[in-house]
Amino acid sequence: MVERILAATQQALKDLMGNSSELRNLKASDFTDEKFGVPTVTDIIKELEKPGRDPRPEFKTAQFADGVETMNDLQPGMILEGAVTNVTNFGAFVDIGVHQDGLVHISSLSNKFVEDPHTVVKAGDIVKVKVLEVDLQRKRIALTMRLDEQPGETNARRGGGNERPQTTARQPNRVGVKRSLPVTAR
What is the pTM of this model? Predict the structure, then answer.
């Protein structure tokens, strides 16, 4: 369609794009056929008036650390930028530029209790992570988004805020069933 418009105006695409006066003189009905109707041709002409406009959202990428290219380059305590590649029920996998994604366990996604990792991160998010542990033999990288967390430290030892809230055990009470109080000796 654009090629037909260029042929009719006898202009190059770079000269026609953004040339509002030339584009407004065009009649969409002159370019319609069985494939393109007036509304579609009108939209194409309007888009030609907006040079360089890209309707896609800005694409952000992680800035991988210089000198960190393999798992051997990783050290516990390093703070790196990465991109979330997958979110699961147990955490999120993050690409930190070493050809092996690291795992941020659900307990290390936030300083608060997280029931569903999807509420904290989504695939494509750019995040800062700290390396907790590198297991070269099993090709596993343990990461945390809690930048104050220290390598080798566990949630239980810290008494951190990621433990499930304590609940008291309760017996279910079926509707219509009377409970009797325990009998005490007299």
Answer: 0.55
